[in-house]
Amino acid sequence: MKKEYLSLDNVNGSLIDLSGLHHVKYGEIVSITNSETKEELVGRVIGISDDKATVQIFGESMGVSTENLRVVFEGRPFEIPLSPAILGRRFSGIGQAIDNGGPIYSGKFYNVNGQPMNPVAREYPRNFIQTGIRAIDSVMTLIRGQKLPIFSGSGLPHNELAAQIIRQANIADSGKDGADFAVVFCGMGLKREVASFFTDSFMEAGVMDKVVIYMNYADDPIMERIIAPKCALTAAEYLAFEEHKHVLVIMTDMTSYGESLREVSSQRQEVPSRKGYPGYLYSDLAALYERAGMIRGVEGSVTLIPILTMPSDDITHPIPDLTGYITEGQIVLSRDLNGQGIYPPVNILDSLSRLMKDGIGEEYTRKDHADVSAQLFASYSRCIEVRSLAQIIGEEELSEGDQKILTFGKRFENEFIGQGFNESSTIGQTLDKAWELLRILPKDSLVRIDPKLLEEYY
């Protein structure tokens, strides 16, 4: 039998404290009714101590006091209904439909905290997802089941890059018609014009029918912001492991998520850690990121691209720093390239994909992919060194070989890294373009490429 509590100990913003409780569980859902306005709210237990509990409210907490609330503990975790009908729909951060399409009717409700994935049952990520972005597909290839974040900065075009990836991403296997591919997009703390940009971009590209959107706006409660990525990942797990789709999850902005955790931690008067963030920030991020992957014997996969903006472009900030420990590489955007008008401004030298080596090659992309990638990286790295030298001695004093390296670097940035917002390149076209640029350099300088491949492609 459910018990109703009318006496509260304390109300602090969107947090309420109660005591004298019986058999309350961590994460349990709470129904809250304002006895004056009759408004119904939803909450979740986020702290338990003896017979006391702290509940966070999802929604507007204005007008809430210790005397006008009726609280009922539901005896179940936070759950959302899921079915194949979620594709093409837009939901709030707590899984409520916001697209005038009505609620999702389903006989199955899923715990947003997910089910722990047995490490022994995990399948090693293989094969790749083609994003159509040359810089990503060639040098930091996205592998199915991987966690590959985008590290950006304020004012850089990470939103445009995310929208382009969602529009263009597909499974690169021959013969696929895209029916088993889906995208889950989660926006946290986004301005409404930014959210409209994403939605309009998907509709204009005609891909909305394979996208599920969970959107938390900047003026929505921060408690909703904390639950939004969990709802999105739960939907992704459902589509992947029950509907057997290959799901790409894009979450932006993880910095907004971290700041919400910090604000709630401050309200709870917890001991702060680095830069005021809670000490459990690492484990909280890991609980989200580690939900990506594949399960042995189950068709389907969850691939994750979290996007975060680095305050003051500081890659040692707690959120990008801890994200780097958990994930398998990173895509770093460059303010210098962006200042030159190059889009997408991907910093090749600071970016990497740790799983790339196991998802490329003759079986997956093309036999020359690994060697071409290594040579592009080495040649562009050499270009950066020569540019520094040219600033000291002057470009006219450089050797002929170094001047060719500079020519390669300039064309590499403008013609290879740079591409249009609506331009998509297949992996074959990407590698062909790479060879076109590598032919600028002397054949004997391409030491990272197997001589047999050099004879075939050069």
Automatic annotation (TrEMBL):
Q: Which UniProt keywords apply?
A: ATP synthesis, Hydrogen ion transport, Ion transport, Transport
* Assigned protein family: Belongs to the ATPase alpha/beta chains family.
Please list the residue ranges annotated as the ATP synthase A/B type C-terminal domain: 358-458
**GO molecular function annotations of the record:** ATP binding; proton-transporting ATP synthase activity, rotational mechanism; proton-transporting ATPase activity, rotational mechanism
Q: Which InterPro entries match?
A: ATP-synt_VA_C (IPR055190), ATPase_a/bsu_AS (IPR020003), ATPase_F1/V1/A1_a/bsu_N (IPR004100), ATPase_F1/V1/A1_a/bsu_nucl-bd (IPR000194), P-loop_NTPase (IPR027417), V-ATPase_su_B/beta (IPR022879)
| Record-given protein name | V-type ATP synthase beta chain
* Name of the gene this protein is made from: atpB
Cite the HAMAP family for this sequence. Answer: ATP_synth_B_arch
